[in-house]
């Protein structure tokens, strides 16, 4: 249920009204204070609440029920876009287009530091790199694990780029916090790992939540709801392609998910054109389409020698190719009200 308060409502009136709602109906109240209005989102069993009774209060402008199962992620509860702020004045959401780039896997110190330096020169504001790698085959390269986190820290110290890397288990959370990971990525296969999502809800570290291989848009938003319900409001959604009957590409980029998500939720949305297509020459057109569709950012795989990459070389750009793509994105971004 959503309650919109009248513009003249005072802070004391609002707090007294919220207290009465919580005590009378046993709900929790999420408050959003905007420039023009204040919105109260009631979380819990609201079936027994009489809308007419609530609407009769002198400070209430309007009341309506929310049918969608996701509440905190719902734009109706939070009309303005959420902007995730990070150290150094960086942000994801708003007018700034975020560019996250780096290798699928951290392989060595020379590899990650060289790529970090090059993607920063090309315009990336964040460094991605996998220290822990979920792989379909148990015999494939699984990442350098703790050593990979240390190498990411070293690359961050050298370039100043914040780190984006994937967490696979609740057991790794303390390790990631100790390593100073700036954005924790939840991979597609863990999107509905609800125990993990609950624990991440207790943090304040931004979470990059990737859409599952066969997940619906509502399922993605419900996964985000788990994190938000725990108290962590710093959630970034990622469209990375879904599994369809098409076999030419690795996945099928659901470009329509971007404007749909922007309509349904206040959370920022980034697109991963690398995993979506699985082919390096597809990254540029998919990235441009994502910007045009309204994405808040892009996450792109870059490797200094894709042919010898230990994972996902076929979809990785070389640093020179990344420079070209980033330059095109920078040129196109203002056409859609963005800056890079």
Overview of the structural elements:
The chain is an alpha/beta fold. The protein folds into 2 domains: 2-64, 2-Layer Sandwich (Alpha-Beta Plaits), CATH 3.30.70; 84-336, Aldolase class I (TIM Barrel, Alpha-Beta Barrel), CATH 3.20.20. It contains 11 helices and 14 strands. It has helices spanning 11-25, 51-55, 109-122, 146-159, 173-178, 194-200, 217-229, 257-264, 273-277, 280-293, 319-332; strands spanning 2-5, 28-33, 38-43, 60-64, 84-86, 90-92, 98-102, 126-128, 163-167, 183-186, 207-210, 235-239, 269-271, 297-301. The strands form 3 sheets. Strands 7-8-9-10-11-12-13-14 form an 8-stranded parallel barrel, surrounded by 5 helices. It has a 4-stranded antiparallel β-sheet with strand order 2-3-1-4. Strand 8, helix 4 and strand 9 (163-167) form a beta-alpha-beta unit. Helix 3 packs parallel to helix 11 (319-332) and helix 10 (280-293) runs parallel beside helix 11 (319-332).
What topology does this entry show?
Blueprint: E1 2-5, H1 11-25, E2 28-33, E3 38-43, H2 51-55, E4 60-64, E5 84-86, E6 90-92, E7 98-102, H3 109-122, E8 126-128, H4 146-159, E9 163-167, H5 173-178, E10 183-186, H6 194-200, E11 207-210, H7 217-229, E12 235-239, H8 257-264, E13 269-271, H9 273-277, H10 280-293, E14 297-301, H11 319-332
Parallel strand pairs: 7-8, 7-14, 8-9, 9-10, 10-11, 11-12, 12-13, 13-14
Antiparallel strand pairs: 1-3, 1-4, 2-3, 5-6
Helix pairs in contact: 3-4, 3-11, 6-7, 10-11
């Amino acid at each position: 249920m959503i309650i919109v308060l009248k513009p003249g409502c005072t802070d004391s009136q609002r707090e007294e009204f919220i207290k009465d709602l919580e005590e009378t109906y046993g709900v929790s109240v999420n408050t959003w204070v905007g420039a023009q209005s204040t919105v109260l989102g009631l979380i819990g069993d609201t079936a027994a609440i009489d809308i007419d009774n609530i609407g009769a209060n002198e400070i209430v402008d309007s009341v309506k029920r929310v049918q969608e199962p996701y509440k905190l992620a719902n734009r109706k509860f939070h009309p303005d876009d959420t902007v995730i702020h990070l150290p150094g004045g960086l942000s994801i959401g708003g007018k700034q287009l975020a560019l996250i780039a780096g290798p699928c896997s951290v392989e060595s110190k020379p590899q990650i530091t060289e790529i970090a330096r090059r993607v920063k020169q090309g315009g990336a504001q964040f460094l991605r790199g996998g220290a822990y790698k979920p792989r379909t085959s148990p015999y494939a390269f699984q990442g350098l694990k703790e050593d990979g986190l240390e190498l990411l820290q070293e690359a961050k110290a050298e370039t100043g780029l914040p780190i984006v890397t994937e967490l696979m288990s609740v057991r790794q959370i303390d390790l990631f916090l100790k390593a100073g990971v700036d954005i924790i990525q939840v991979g597609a296969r863990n999107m509905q790992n609800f125990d993990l999502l609950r624990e991440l809800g207790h943090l304040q570290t931004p979470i990059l939540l990737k859409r599952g291989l066969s997940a619906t848009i509502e399922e993605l938003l419900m996964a985000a709801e788990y994190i938000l319900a725990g108290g962590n409001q710093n959630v970034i959604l990622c469209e990375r392609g879904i599994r369809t009957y098409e076999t030419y590409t690795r996945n099928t980029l659901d470009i329509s998910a971007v404007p749909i998500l922007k309509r349904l939720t206040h959370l920022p949305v980034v697109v991963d054109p690398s995993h979506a297509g699985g082919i390096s020459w597809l990254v540029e057109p998919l990235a441009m389409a994502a910007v045009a569709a309204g994405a808040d950012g892009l996450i792109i795989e870059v490797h200094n020698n894709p042919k010898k990459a230990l994972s996902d070389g076929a979809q990785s750009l070389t640093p020179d190719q990344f420079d070209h793509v980033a330059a095109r994105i920078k040129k196109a971004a203002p056409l859609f009200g963005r800056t890079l």
